[in-house]
UniProtKB/TrEMBL annotation:
Belongs to the NMT1/THI5 family. InterPro entries: NMT1/THI5, SsuA/THI5. It catalyses: N(6)-(pyridoxal phosphate)-L-lysyl-[4-amino-5-hydroxymethyl-2-methylpyrimidine phosphate synthase] + L-histidyl-[4-amino-5-hydroxymethyl-2-methylpyrimidine phosphate synthase] + 2 Fe(3+) + 4 H2O = L-lysyl-[4-amino-5-hydroxymethyl-2-methylpyrimidine phosphate synthase] + (2S)-2-amino-5-hydroxy-4-oxopentanoyl-[4-amino-5-hydroxymethyl-2-methylpyrimidine phosphate synthase] + 4-amino-2-methyl-5-(phosphooxymethyl)pyrimidine + 3-oxopropanoate + 2 Fe(2+) + 2 H(+). SUPFAM superfamilies: Periplasmic binding protein-like II (SSF53850). This is Thiamine pyrimidine synthase. Responsible for the formation of the pyrimidine heterocycle in the thiamine biosynthesis pathway. Catalyzes the formation of hydroxymethylpyrimidine phosphate (HMP-P) from histidine and pyridoxal phosphate (PLP). The protein uses PLP and the active site histidine to form HMP-P, generating an inactive enzyme. The enzyme can only undergo a single turnover, which suggests it is a suicide enzyme.
Length: 327
């Protein structure tokens, strides 16, 4: 009996196994594209998986750079940024498709009679964000409609939407599930051209990605994290309003417009952006990855580690994996 009590005392004295610390970098200030992370945090699913997950605040350093350099093990990655950095040899792999389809669209004032088709945008003023992707995208859309693909650009960043509303620019790009939703809430009439209607391949617009070297050395931990995040996004897909409440609560006042958050979550679900019918949440479609990479390559956007434009289409087969997802 004495030996049993001694063994029990030793067990009680042993410290509980510490949760493994992981960091996740965001690609922007908290928004509904990040909802699954915050749901998993609120529900305790990361803790259940033996993980202590820190969601890093957004900074001027891109999430892709933080992941590829190993500062963060995981990050939310915009698709174009991911493809561009991966082409340059960045050490990261996409492990989950957060947003299944293209949410971006070209928008303009809905009361304008002089814009009826993309070719009408020739010579007009575009409020931009400073990326090569925008120029290639818009030129391609206009040319696909028979136009010249020429337009003037004023780089305004997020001020683009106010500029569009007050008429100082003619058109811009927006995320339909965020800025598009907000324009409705503000009572701003808009019309839009969808990229896919004018020859631009559909794409997963947002990924969860991991540092490739770290993933290879920590497959069990990586799998535990990705499955917990996937569970969070799965909950959000089925319970958008409850998930919106968790996102608002977990971000400690950073989201000051609950109406926008709730409407955005509903738009993500109604548009089928979080989940394809009959598929697991987060599943990456290699055909979509190849298609948009081909578009970026043809447009001369992809560059190598030396900054030179790629001369051959890259092999994207190792850029993504579904291995860590629950199927």
């Amino acid at each position: 009996m004495k030996h049993v009590l001694t063994a029990l005392a030793l067990l009680i004295a042993l410290p509980a196994q510490a949760a493994e610390k992981l960091t996740v970098a965001l690609d922007w200030t908290p928004n509904t594209n990040h909802v699954g992370l915050y749901v998993a945090q609120a529900k305790g699913w990361f803790t259940e998986a033996g993980l202590d997950v820190e969601i890093l605040p957004y900074t001027d350093t891109s999430s892709g750079t933080l992941v590829s350099t190993g500062v963060a093990q995981f990050g939310i990655l915009s698709a174009v940024g991911f493809h561009s950095q991966r082409a340059m040899g960045a050490d990261m792999t996409a492990v989950m498709a957060v947003v299944q389809h293209e949410t971006g669209r070209l928008v303009f004032n809905g009361e304008r009679d002089d814009i009826q088709r993309p070719a009408d945008l020739d010579g007009k003023i575009y409020a931009g964000f400073g990326s090569a992707w925008e120029n290639a995208l818009i030129s391609s859309i206009i040319k696909h409609d028979g136009g010249e693909g020429t337009f003037d650009t004023v780089t305004l960043g997020t001020s683009a939407y106010e500029a569009l509303a007050n008429g100082s620019v003619d058109f811009t790009l927006e995320v339909s599930t965020w800025e598009g939703v907000n324009s409705v809430l503000l009572g701003r009439p808009q019309r839009a051209f969808s990229y896919a209607d004018y020859g631009v391949p559909d794409q997963h617009t947002t990924f969860l990605g991991g540092n490739a070297t770290w993933l290879a050395a920590n497959t069990a931990t990586a799998g535990a994290f990705v499955k917990a995040a996937q569970r969070g996004y799965g909950f959000a897909a089925e319970n958008p309003q409850a998930a919106a409440d968790m996102l608002i609560a977990e971000t400690g006042g950073m989201l000051s417009n609950p109406e926008l958050v709730h409407a955005s979550m509903q738009a993500l679900v109604d548009g089928g952006f979080l989940k394809d019918e009959g598929e697991a949440v987060g599943l990456i479609d290699p055909a979509l990855v190849t298609g948009i990479t081909g578009f970026l390559f043809s447009a001369g956007i992809l560059r190598d580690a030396n900054g030179d434009v790629l001369e051959t289409m890259p092999d994207v087969s190792s850029w993504t994996t579904n291995a860590y997802l629950a199927h």
